[in-house]
Design brief:
200 residues, alpha+beta, 32% helix, 8 strands, eight-stranded antiparallel beta sheet, 7 helices
């Protein structure tokens, strides 16, 4: 095994198991089938789940998700300028935070301009997003395409990236991003600390 590690490095599951240990979560071994392994960890008042899935083109995505109480229906999506999502955007309008470097690097779509500005005025959130080479991060009023239906009032915070993420430091930053974002959503009145009753 040591010889194989020298050539190929640790596997995804080995890295994810180490991640679970370092963030105080649980690793669930899915065995052979891609997408069944996951990490579930408590971040503040919320449970953040890391797993993978394949889309209809058989492309692999890594995703992190956290159900939360969406208090006011605030939604947003943020991605990098020049990304696949940017090139296929339906309109050209986006939120400007007022931080030039950040505004030049990211596109933000939202149904509430003021709340989006408040959220992304948080420097730590901006820094964590800037550290990610690929970003698709959004908050919804309901569950996403690949989630079971959520109860009324329960939204989903989602981060996804193409391919498997096997960089431990990057994964830890993503868990930190979820914690900072959910805390800030509570501070600006768009979320609560209440339990959702949903485990994914």
């Amino acid at each position: 095994m040591a010889i194989l590690d020298r050539f190929f490095g640790p596997t995804r599951d080995e890295i994810w198991e180490k991640l679970a240990d370092e963030v105080g979560g649980d690793f669930y071994d899915g065995g052979f089938w891609l997408g069944e392994s996951k990490v579930r960890a408590k971040v503040g008042y919320w449970i953040v789940t890391l797993d993978t899935y394949k889309d209809h083109r058989n492309a692999i995505y890594t995703r992190l998700r956290a159900p939360f109480i969406n208090k006011d229906g605030f939604i947003f999506t943020i991605y990098r300028v020049g990304s696949f999502e940017d090139e296929h955007a339906a309109d050209d309008s986006d939120v400007q935070v007022g931080v030039t470097d950040f505004d030049d690097a990211f596109v933000i779509k939202s149904n509430n301009l003021d709340q989006a500005k408040k959220l992304f005025s948080h420097e730590k959130i901006r820094d964590l997003l800037c550290d990610q080479p690929e970003v698709f991060f959004n908050a919804s009023k309901h569950s996403g395409w690949y989630s079971a239906d959520f109860p009324q009032g329960v939204g989903e915070l989602l981060f996804q990236a193409r391919s498997e993420i096997k960089n431990l430091a990057r994964l830890k930053q993503l868990y930190e991003l979820f914690g900072e974002t959910l805390d800030t959503l509570c501070q600006i009145g768009s979320a609560t600390h209440d339990k959702t009753g949903v485990i994914i």
